[in-house]
Design a protein that fits this description.
Elements lengths: L8 H10 L3 E3 L14 E5 L11 E6 L32 H7 L4
Parallel strand pairs: 1-3
Antiparallel strand pairs: 2-3
Length: 103
């Protein structure tokens, strides 16, 4: 199995084709049109013995802006510095807005 990590999608497809394996990309439904994204992970790993026609799974970098690629664990939102804050009561709202320069 060749090393595909670090290659652009178009190069990874060509390398896989030259070695007689097929590629699957679960994080890229449009994988056949993906060109410039870089492979960041592959399975089976480089050097593993795989038969011709085997399917190799690759994952891609999210790139600029975070994308949406990859399998991600759920993240909890961070608590603001200083802990949680209560919402101002309705009677406090005008005073709070003026302190913030919004009212």
């Amino acid at each position: 199995m060749p090393r595909l990590v670090g290659l652009m999608a178009v190069d990874a497809r060509e390398t896989a084709r030259a070695h007689g394996v097929l590629l699957a990309a679960p994080d890229r439904p449009d994988f056949s049109r993906t060109v410039a994204d870089h492979v960041v992970r592959q399975y089976p790993p480089p050097g593993a013995g795989v038969p011709r026609g085997a399917v190799v799974t690759v994952w891609f970098d999210a790139g600029e802006g975070g994308g949406g690629s990859g399998v991600r664990e759920p993240r909890r939102p961070d608590v603001p510095h200083g802990g949680m804050r209560r919402e101002p009561a309705a009677e406090e709202e005008p005073r709070v807005m003026s302190l913030l320069g919004l009212g």
